[in-house]
Every structure is written in C-alpha cells, then in structure tokens.
Design goal:
The protein is an alpha/beta fold. It is built from 13 helices and 12 strands. The termini are far apart.
Length: 357
C-alpha cells in the first residue's frame, strides 16, 4: 500500500507527508519539481527513511507520472502541486496555467489510464484527491454568508482562475470517465515551513530584520485562517471516508482582518523576541492595494464536520503562537530560504521596495 503525493516538498505538501509518516507506516512517493517554494530541507527528518521515496520531477511530464504509477502502484494520488501566490500570478500568469491547469490535466489522464487497468478490488479502492482553495469562489461582502460547497465559482485573479479550472477538470473526469475523485477547498493556511512570500512568515521575517511591515490598502481584507496541521488531518479524513465525486470545504472558523493578523504577530514577537528599538507595530506601513484584491473569504466547513466528524484542533490563538515559536526556533531554515529563490522573487516583484503583506 502506497500513496503518491504531488508537491510534497512545498508548504502544505511537506506538512502532509511529515504528518502522514508520523501517524502510519504506509509509504509515500513524493513527486515535486522543486520550484522556488519547494524545499527538500522541509523533509530533512525523513532522510534515510525507506517509507519516503522522493522524485524530482514535473507533474506535466506524462512519461514520468506513468512510470511512477506503474512502478509503485499507489492506492491514491494526493495532488498538492500548484503555483499558489496571487501576486506572482498577476506578474506571470503563464506558469500558473501550465502547472495548475495542464499539470492537473496530465495527472488526471495518467490516473485514468492507471485506474482503468486495475483489478476490481484495487479499482474500487483507488482515490484521486485534489487539494484546492477557497479563492475559486471569489469575494464576499461583509454580511454575506460564508462559502459553501455549492457557491458559484467567481475567481478574480489568474491564480484563482487556474485553480477553478483544475477543479472543473477533476469534476469532469469523475462525471465523464468515472474516475474516483475527491476535492477539498481550503482557507488560508499558516504554520511551519511556509515560504516567506505569504503574510504570516513574511511578517515574522521582516519584523526580525527591522524592515517595514507593508499592509495592502486599509488592511481590512478578511480571511479565514487554518493551521496547516489541521488541514492535513482533514485531508486524511476525506481521503479515507469522503464520498466519491464530492467537494469538502476545509476551514478554521477563524475570520480575521489582515491588520489584526499583523498586530497579533507583532504582539507575540514583542513577548517572545522583544526589540530594543520598541514594539514591532512601529514597523507597520500601509501601501497601495494590489489589483483585484478580494475583500473577504469565509469558509462554511459544516459539511465535513457533519459527514466525517472533522473539526480543527487549533484555535487561531493556539496555532499562531505555535507558528511564531517555530519560526523563532528554526532560524537556520529561514535563513537558507532567504538566501535563495525568495530574494530573487522579492527583487522581481517589488524592485527596490520591501515585500508587501
């Protein structure tokens, strides 16, 4: 028994692989292209572990995917691999179309060929689990009900459009070909091993360096925040017991304005790593909002609770404290990340300006 994980060296994927192998002995074949946000160092604790087979490769490489399926005969594919940053998608949408749309299509076709040839029992047990985002649903008004699984798709960025396209492909391969698929749409994740282009790790990195903490617009954009290890536990539940062809929204029940997140991180850093120059909030700087910035996301996660009994274990208060502590305790990891692709990205994205939250 084996599972194939795509994008398993990225933020959510590496946390999933680590948690999976910490909780059971079923091997993982981990396929990752190691683009800027894929980091083998996330998986350092698995060096020499025979249960973890790492393969450096692209999900768009059909021959490679076919070979891995034939060689390892997984009972499931868990598909994390994606370009995932909105700002990047605005500056370079082509990579998002290639990975998120063409890559998902390639995986689906490879999975369909592999699944079709399985014996009856193996065929019935096989699953293709597609990990997606709440951003496919668009933006909510301040008084709108949270997104449910039947909410109309209204993507507003090249990133969310590419993920919406991949969701539709997964649905179509189930309804047309019978491929046994599951889809989860998650809210904003945070936690260990998060590449520092995203809000929370970026705040920590900039604050410790004494750099400005740029906040888009008025900072009142609202997101639902989900601790990454809770997300991993939800995926395990859906993979094990989810109904075929269904979508499950995975949320943290933690709607927070971005400016509140910034101030919470500053307060925790004041407590854990005080700065002689004064409170970290002094570094907050408001900057011009990005194009098409969605105002509010909110996830209604009652379906997964009702059907599978899943709820997040962490509150935002417990999860964010664990997250800040992890970054403070893992500065070598942070510095290694900062010395590589992140710096190149900051230069391309903002020129001589600091990165924005």
């Amino acid at each position: 028994m084996t599972i194939l994980v795509t994008g398993g060296a990225g933020f959510i994927g590496s946390n999933f692989v680590l948690d999976w192998l910490a909780s059971n002995d079923e091997p993982v074949v981990n396929l990752d292209a190691l683009t800027y946000a894929g980091n083998r160092e996330n998986l350092a604790s698995l060096e020499g572990d025979a249960r973890h087979v790492f393969v450096h490769g692209d999900i768009c490489d059909r021959d490679l995917v076919d070979r891995l399926l034939a060689e390892h005969r997984p009972r499931a594919i868990v598909h994390f691999a994606a370009e995932s940053h909105v700002d990047r998608s605005i500056h370079g949408p082509g990579e998002f179309m290639q990975t998120n749309v063409t890559g998902t299509f390639t995986l689906l076709e490879a999975a369909r060929g592999y699944w079709s040839a399985l014996e009856t029992g193996e065929k019935a047990a096989f699953r293709f689990h597609h990990v997606s985002t709440d951003e496919v649903y668009g933006s909510l008004g301040p008084d709108d009900a949270p997104f449910t699984e039947t909410h109309a798709y209204e993507p507003n960025s090249p990133y969310s459009a590419s993920k919406a396209a991949s969701d539709h492909l997964v649905r179509a391969w189930h309804h047309t070909y019978g491929l046994p698929v599951l889809t989860t749409n998650c809210s904003n994740n945070y936690g260990p091993y998060h590449f520092p282009e995203k809000l929370i790790p970026l705040l920590i990195v900039n604050a410790l360096a004494g750099k400005p903490l740029p906040v888009y617009g008025d900072g009142r954009q609202i997101r639902d925040w989900l601790y990454v290890k809770d997300h991993c536990s939800a995926i395990r539940e859906v993979l094990a017991r989810g109904r075929l062809g269904e979508t499950y929204n995975i949320g943290g029940w933690n709607e927070k304005p971005n400016i509140d997140i910034v101030k919470t991180v500053c307060a925790l850093l004041d407590e854990m790593r005080p700065d002689a120059a004064g409170p970290y909030e002094r570094l907050i700087t408001y900057v011009t909002d990005r194009p098409g910035h969605d105002r509010r996301y909110a996830i209604d996660a009652r379906k997964v609770e009702r059907e599978l009994g899943w709820r997040p274990a962490e509150t935002f208060e417990t999860g964010i404290r664990k997250t800040v502590r992890w970054y403070l305790d893992n500065q070598p990891w942070v510095q290694n990340v900062l010395s590589g692709g992140y710096r190149d990205w900051v230069s391309k994205q903002y020129g001589n300006q600091d990165a924005c939250a």
